[in-house]
Batch of 4 targets.
Target 1
Amino acid sequence: MKRPTVRLDSVCERIDYGFTASADFRVTEPRLLRITDIQNGAVDWNHVPGCRITPKEEAEKRLNPGDIVFARTGATTGKCFLIKHAPRAVFASYLIRLRATDEVLPNYLYAFFQSQSYWHQIKGAVRGAAQGGVNSTTLSSLVVPMPDLSEQRRVAGEFEQADRLVRIRRSALELTDTFLPAAFLELFGDPSTNPNGFDQVQLDDELACIESGESPICEGPRQSVNQWAVLGLGAVTRGFLKPEENKRLPDDVKPRPELEVHDGDVLVTRKNTYDLVAACALVRRPPERLLLPDTIFRFRLKTNSRLSPVLLWGLFSFPTFRRRVQALASGSAGSMPGISKNKFKSIYCPAPPLPMQLKFAALVERVERIRAVQSEALRQAEHLFDSLLSGAFGPGG
């Protein structure tokens, strides 16, 4: 049976734009909610600035529980946030506020706004708009499945449970990722100040070579591990290799097997934004046929080096040491900053005794096993989340 559908504006009390004002952290109320205050589906109201506004304007732009705000433009265009509770707050001009009528549950609408059906309509509207972005007309014309309130309650309840599970799994993984920097600090101290007085060695004396790859014009992500692919910069920006961040090598380009990444490789971005240049990843049991791009260096240590690959990764991942390395980056106006091989070689590193390095390597191995379990749990939670949305809002749902 075909599900009943409605235009979104037919079940909305209002769809309107936010308040144009300067954020002012000296003002405590009302808060001024901005796009940048919404991170990972949550708002830390303690860090949301205030604004100056007349009582009449505040009454017009005041956020209430059940309101849904949408990003109008930028990298998060179309993403939304459901106000479940809020202090005295209004919303800024780059957001659109939707307030539903009693005919529809806000939680149900919020679930729909995560579905592929919603994103298909939004992306089509943005592509067809003269200036891009989302506006009130775009939202008003969205077609929404509209079952009765009992079915809305069921869908919203299942969505909330699945969403909560994904957040729990993601938080557990993020918490695990804080362990190794803390363990590194406990074992070795801050490498920028070297409080234990470890010998300092220059990378130029410890490295057999620094290898760089190639970046031919490639296609989308590969479909099979039997295909050769080139890693993207995103593959190394989180500390551990993300092999799915790749682009398939065209059939007419011959792969260079000597550029294939291997277990134990230390990969460092030589060129990126200032925040991500010198990002480092330790490669563990990678899929086959993944190649280095020209934006990532591979550090190969000498067999008699006083630094282990795991220690080198730990150094480049430690915040204070990494900032020191990032300070070496340079670039012309309009280009991404980069660090040359010679500048990397000029870096001095503390070299703790080998038993300490082996102890840290054992900790890394243990944490990697935990991460693998947690990553799989997160993948399954996300699959459940997507399946529920597809079942509720996909064709035939």
Target 2
Amino acid sequence: MFEVLGDFLGLTAPPKGDFPVPESFLNGSALRKDSVREQVFSKVFRWRLPDGHTREPVSVEVAGSFTNWQKVPLTRNGAPDAWQVMLHDIPINRTHHYMILVDGKPAYDRYNDGLAIPRGPEEERHQIMTDKGPRVFMLFAQTK
């Protein structure tokens, strides 16, 4: 039947028992660990004005190891009176470092998972000063 349909459409059937095998399967690269999709999760970052402050910032952004330290703007949500953004595709099973930037300056994030010593120039550029020295925020990206 395939021959009749193949002749009608101008197709030919592959020879029986002779199926082309991609080169990547022959050298094993298709089965390597790096070809498997990395597991990720989503996270809502939220920032609120500190108690007693009434002047709204011009911009609120988040930057971190999960954005390659590129700034991502948070949008103002009037109902909870907060700025927020949901970021997707954050790799799991590692600890990420990040900062909240308000009008371009590092600001405290009350929702952080902890504080870490900055590593590298990007983290040092975004650090805050604490009583224990410069720090950046941590995000524990663990599976549950």
Target 3
Amino acid sequence: MKDHYRCFEDLRQGEEEGVDYRVTVTDRNAAVAVVAPHGGWIEPRTSQIATAIAGSDYSLYCFEGLRPRPHAELHITSTRFDEPVCLALLARTQTVLTVHGTATTWPLVEVGGLDMTRRDLVAAHLAQAGFPVDVREHGRNAGRSPDNICNRGTTRRGVQLEISDGLRKAYYRGERDPQPLADAVRRAIAAASGHRM
């Protein structure tokens, strides 16, 4: 589906901040930033999952749709996502991990991005925690473009998570706790940095 807005400036002129969307950022001066570029009503529950992954250790950025409406109206494709607060944060952050949602109806986490070491660690930790995982090497949801927001940290290599609608709905219905997924990702990030968590 084609985006309604080609860039953030177009969106800013057509929407009202605080009514249609909001930007939140917590800059912890960390080496890792967790980003939900399609949070709120755009790809529901991705903001909450990103917040749980960031915890109190990693920087956090969320762009959130505030009203239930067709999500494409506020969706800016990851390769064109250029909201200035986000870009400023990533310009001083080594590694970016983005959290997205897909329309897949069964539980699945697709893992992509140019940081193959962290990508594979995240996939392995998620699988170990019992989550169905698909490592994406090519095509849609692989996060391989250098312009993808997940690859815009200073290392120019990051990780992209695409969490299925089936899994996210289980979270907002209260059927599953999102913390085990967040904890698995956090363990992978720590392992990649040589830390214990």
Target 4
Amino acid sequence: MPVRKMRVEVFDGSGNRYTVTFEGKVTREEALRLLDLIELLGGMPGVNPEWAGAASESSKFEKVHLIVQKHFPIAWFTSKDAQSMYEQEFKEPIPLSTVSTYLSRMADRGLLKKGGISNRRHYKALTGASQSALTLLKGNK
């Protein structure tokens, strides 16, 4: 594996900038650990208390999008994964076909990357830190 460089810049609420640089054999697992560390330090936007109230007034499509942003910001997932997290988070059932349709629409709009064959489809978010991390990992060789 070639030597790569990954740099993450995070800004806090006060306008301070924190830069974390990782050089060497950057694997997917190491990149995920680094992003988890950034999130633990409070550097990545998380779910705030207002999220729950806003979610109750949102459409199912918007709720599925919130689930993707919250639970799958940098990992591949399936419609079944999203359905499970939706039902855990909102305590209401949602048909798998509805989740699949919404994820497909999000992919068509450029919010998700779609992979696999039709009966084994998986998705990955293309926004926020995940898009930056992918760009850094692919661009810095």
